[in-house]
Amino acid sequence: MSTLRHAELALAALARRPPFRIQGRVAAAGALTLDIDGLQGLAARGDRVAIAHPGGELTGEITDISIDRLRAVGFEALEGIGLGAAVRLEGAATLAPDDAWLGRVVDPLGRPIDGKGALPQGSVPRRVRAAPPAAGTRARLGPRLDLGVRALDAFCTCRRGQRLGLFAASGVGKSTLMSMLAAGAEADVAVIALVGERGRELREFVEEDLGAAGLARSVVVCATSDQPPLMRREAAFAAMTVAEHFRDQGRHVLLMMDSVTRFAMALREIGLASGEPPATRGYTPTVFAELPRLLERAGPAEAGNPGAITGLFTVLVEGDDHDEPVADAVRGILDGHVVLDRKIGEAGRYPAIDVLRSLSRTVPGCLEEDEHALMLRARRILALHAEVADLVRLGAYRAGTDPDVDAAVRLAPRIEAFLAQRKEERGTIADAFGRLAEALDGA
């Protein structure tokens, strides 16, 4: 028999053998973590594992490695796992997004949760934990972008590939503003990450806020508040991976994440369960290392690729404290911030954007000279009106004393009316500046 024939028979025999599996055992189990024995020297931090469970298999992730054992955190609740349960090593975490994902709602592991059947997988798996494009070869920001919200288009004009933070306490209209942006912002594809969202709000957001047309161009990645912290954390990384898939095809992707704060809270839970020491307000050091690793992945692609990820990230400020640790860290990473103020919302003006405390760091490069002058004039009028509002209200200011104050008292209500916008309204940057010019006519 020839050597070639021997080789063919050997390959055929190998093909009939069951696949080789690297397997360990559960050595200890806690509320959130598992200690695993038997995989030392084989597994790396961040690798996925499949854990035997009476109902099938659960997925986990290696978070810590020591000489004698590994520690993993589960994507699902760990109830029912006993000592000695088999643990199979699966390797690095990957997702395989595909164009067929548009119009679908998935969980952070890429599994459909919308009841629409199986989800086709792409041909090329992508690493979930990936590096951003190299800083030295990354493309610059693109042209300005219509967001569809007048207050943002006029006072916080955004460019393609920019990253904006939406900072608000609970109950100030943050989710409503997100839905306006999801439906009205200019983009080829929208990827929406709902991190720690209320379960009852998912269908409401998809069916009412996005609607059929909005959903058709979107991929929604959702992890609800009742799911384990690893699943909530993974929702942010999975959404970023899906956005990178479409960006690398040369498309403009609008990535909306609600919220970065819940992502940070999930990281804190994982860090504390893994033995990390608490630092600022109980947040572990890992939180402030992971935030830039996530947020820096949004933005333009490498030079030569027209694709870009424009990121809109909500930040839930605790107790209306805009200087709390997560808000402060995120504000320093992003290219601008939009502040939603509770008092403005209580006064009945929505979206409750405080334009005097909001800014886009790219405004000087994306506005025409007359638009920039118009925006600055409106800001000065609002700032002056805020200074004298109490005097006017108390009757301590006499009309005619100061022409600038008289103009501010007359025009500030018109600017406030310009800033108010119904949820279903849509607009462009040109329309926003046209309306602002009308409001300031005669200034």
Features:
22% strand, elongated, protein transport, 443 residues, 6-stranded antiparallel β-barrel, 36% helix, 12 helices, alpha/beta, T3SS_ATPase_C
Estimated helix fraction: 25-40%
- Report how far apart the termini are: 98 Å
Tell how many strands the DSSP assignment holds: 19
Give a quick account of the main beta sheet: strands, pairing sense, barrel closure.
9 strands, mixed
Radius of gyration: 26 Å
Helical element count?
Answer: 12
Strand content: 15-25%
Pfam families: ATP-synt_ab, T3SS_ATPase_C
Catalytic activity: ATP + H2O + cellular proteinSide 1 = ADP + phosphate + cellular proteinSide 2
Protein name: Flagellar protein export ATPase FliI
Domain AAA+ ATPase: 160-345
Protein described:
It is a single chain. Helix 3 (174-184) packs parallel to helix 4 (201-216), helix 5 (229-247) crosses helix 6 and helix 10 packs across helix 11 (403-419). The longest helix is centred in the last third of the chain and has 26 residues, at 369-394. With 443 residues, the chain is α/β, with parallel strands linked by helices. Helix 4 links the parallel strand 13 and strand 14 (218-224). The mean pLDDT is 91. It is elongated and about 100 Å long. Helix content is 36%, strand content 22%. The protein has helices at 3-16, 150-155, 174-184, 201-216, 229-247, 260-273, 285-295, 325-333, 342-346, 369-394, 403-419, 429-439, and strands at 23-29, 33-37, 47-53, 56-65, 70-74, 86-92, 94-95, 104-106, 126-127, 144-145, 158-159, 163-168, 189-197, 218-224, 252-258, 299-300, 308-316, 336-339, 359-360. The protein contains twelve helices and 19 strands. It is found in: Cytoplasm. Keywords: ATP-binding, Cell projection, Cilium, Cytoplasm, Flagellum, Nucleotide-binding, Protein transport, Translocase, Transport. This is Flagellar protein export ATPase FliI. It catalyses: ATP + H2O + cellular proteinSide 1 = ADP + phosphate + cellular proteinSide 2. Residues 160-345 form the AAA+ ATPase domain.
